[in-house]
Design goal:
elongated, 65% helix, mainly alpha
């Protein structure tokens, strides 16, 4: 029952195309139709949303753990070390980013500012004035720039270092005066 639908999902991944393009390919390519165990003949599928509907239906009905066992059982005789897991590089986390000095400094400033706010709130003292909001806007503007010139990088780095130094001194003062 689900054989053709699963085949359609494999084709979507294999072809690397959108739902609309996949249906266009399915309408015009006999190989795709045979792979999906269907023959349209002169008929054409016009509902492009059917692919997402099938995907939703399969997600609710399919047990992926059982599905993974079938290919493994088929290829088990060729696997020399079954206890060892190897994966393709495309399976790794895609949220990795390049850690520039400005990003790291901003994260440190932001984290320390939030720590100072929590400490001041817990001790019941007024938060010391800082130009954090100004620098937050400036950093956001910098991070959205396509071309970050050396002078802008240098100026932002210097300013973030000064702000971080100020927050470290404030944190030290607060902990010296009001030890937790």
């Amino acid at each position: 029952m689900y054989r053709g639908r699963i085949a359609l999902m494999f084709l979507k991944h294999y072809a690397g195309c959108s739902d609309r393009k996949l249906i266009e390919q399915l309408n015009g390519n006999l190989d795709y139709q045979f792979f999906c165990d269907t023959l349209l003949g002169h008929k054409r599928i016009t509902n492009y949303r059917i692919v997402s509907q099938i995907r939703g239906e399969l997600a609710s009905q399919l047990n992926i753990n059982d599905l993974e066992k079938h290919p493994y059982n088929h290829w088990a005789c060729y696997i020399s070390r079954p206890e060892q897991a190897t994966t393709d590089a495309t399976c790794y986390e895609s949220e990795l980013r390049y850690p520039t000095n400005q990003k790291l400094l901003w994260e440190a400033v932001s984290w320390l500012y939030n720590q100072l706010r929590r400490t001041c709130k817990a001790l019941g003292i007024k938060m010391v004035r800082s130009k954090y909001n100004k620098w937050k806007k400036r950093y956001r503007g910098f991070s959205k720039m396509r071309r970050k010139t050396k002078s802008k990088r240098k100026a932002l780095t210097r300013a973030l270092l000064l702000l971080l130094e100020k927050f470290i001194a404030l944190n030290q003062t607060i902990t010296d005066v009001w030890p937790l």
